[in-house]
Amino acid sequence: MAQVTIGRDPATGKPRRATFYGKTRQEVADKLTKALRNKQQGTFVTPHKLTLGEWLHTWLWEYKKPKLRPISFDSYEMLVRRHLAPTLGHILLRDLRPEHLQHFYNEKGQQGLSVRTVRYCHTLLCSALAQAEKNQLIIRNVSKLTELPRAARKEMHTLTLDQVTATLVPAITQDRLFAATFLAFGTGLRRGEVLALRWKNVNLKAGTLQVRQTLVRVTNHHATDGEGRTRPLMQEPKTQHSRRTVPIPETCLAALHQHKARQAEEKLRLGPAYQDHGLVFCRPDGAPMAPEMLPKTFARLITQAGLPPIRFHDARHTFATLMLELGESPKTVQTMLGHSRVAITLDIYSHVSLELEKKAAAKLNAALTGRG
Questions:
Q1: What is the pLDDT of residue 46?
Q2: How far, in Å, CA of 322 to CA of 186, rounded?
Q3: pLDDT (0 to 100) of residue 11
Q4: What is the pLDDT of residue 353?
Q5: 52-145 — its CATH code?
Q6: Contact of 220 with 228, CB cutoff 8 Å
Q7: How many other CB atoms are found less than 10 A from the CB of residue 172?
Q8: Every domain of the chain and the residues it spans
Q9: Nearest to 55 by CA among 135, 142, 122, 114
Q10: Which of 65, 142, 159, 264 is the most buried (most CB within 10 A)?
Q11: Ranges under pLDDT 50 in the chain
């Protein structure tokens, strides 16, 4: 038997050693010499029999769980459990080849999995294999040698200004969650941001609100008997840019005033039974609303108004589209939406930007020809 130190464990800092066995001293010496040569050339792989599934489990819980936000970890865990482990998990990590991954991407696409999810699987694999490469469990990251399906731009569904003001608003004014729906169209807030909004972060006099939290539903991975498989969770916004102050249109302010009065009546009606969390939008008893309830209510209100079906998130798209069409600068829209870069805003709303560019070109043409 022979042992050689091959580095240090990145998690614990302890020395990592490789052990070699053989029937004769010469056989072990040859193995040791080969290992040292490979280590010097950067091609050494620690002897192991890990499968890809076993490594993905270790990578998820030891390397990613401490760093990821709960909802992001849930996405990673779901992809491994539903797609990667059942199809690729049995392959020995050291035997994984580019064609294994390429076949996986192609087959999943043929089975109807969205391009976005296939590319997400690739991103996860690339990160997991990069860590395995650092740990000298593999020689190279084979995910970098694959071809991904082309990302397809999703068609955006928005409402026009007339549809919002003349059709939707009059039809839903009396609904308990009218203010939440109207606020989404008037500020571009995300679903979780609307549901996590507290009155202390709303300045009705100044006409502004502060985004400081978001409400999400996460998996209860260590649930015991009697506990739900998932649970709602208040968490910090994903980026610093998402922590922002947003102006509230006057019409939305009026809706918020009415909503606050209605909420005060609910508090009086329930008395001590009311669970006051200071939330702007909550259940009638004051408890946080399940994240999925707002989209369900939104879909019902859209149908009630006789409008074509759209998602709650499309209210955010509608807000951004209207702002750009009304001549607001992309930088201002970026700030109000909480995007980290104006390029993201321009990319998502390129169809609007193109129309604005055409109008700008027409103005320049008129000026150059003396018709301005």
A1: 65
A2: 10
A3: 60
A4: 63
A5: 1.10.150.130
A6: yes
A7: 19
A8: 2-41, 52-145, 164-310
A9: 135
A10: 159
A11: none
CATH T-level topology, domain 164-310: hpI Integrase; Chain A (1.10.443)
Torsions phi, psi for 45 (to 5 deg): -125, 130
With beta carbons less than 8 A apart as the criterion, state whether 294 and 184 touch.
no
Q: What is the pLDDT of residue 366?
A: 82
pLDDT at res. 43? 55
Residue type (1 letter), 167: T
Structure-token pair, residue 326: 């009304």
What are the tokens at 332?
A: 């201002």
The β-bridge relationship of strands 202-203 and 208-211 is antiparallel
Q: What is the pLDDT of residue 31?
A: 76
Provide the residue type at 320 as one letter: A
CA distance to 24, 96, 300, 302, per residue, from 305 (Å): 84, 54, 9, 5
pLDDT for res 45: 61
Residue 44, pLDDT score: 53
With 0-12 / 13-18 / 19 or more C-beta atoms within 10 angstroms meaning exposed / middle / buried, residue 335 is middle
What pLDDT is attached to residue 363? 79
Closest to 231 measured CA to CA, from 218, 250, 245: 218
Query: How far from 108 is each of 1, 79, 84, 86, 127, CA to CA, in Å?
Result: 45, 12, 10, 12, 20
| pLDDT (0 to 100) of residue 33 | 77
Instruction: Tell me the residue type at 159.
Output: L
Question: What is the rounded distance in angstroms from the CA atom of residue 199 to the CA atom of residue 209?
Answer: 9
Reported as half-sphere exposure (CB side, CA atoms, 13 A), residue 125 has a value of 31
Q: Apex CA 194: angle with CA 353 and CA 210, to 5°?
A: 80
pLDDT value at residue 179: 97
Yes or no: say if 183 and 204 are a contact pair by the CB < 8 Å rule: no
Length reported for the chain: 372
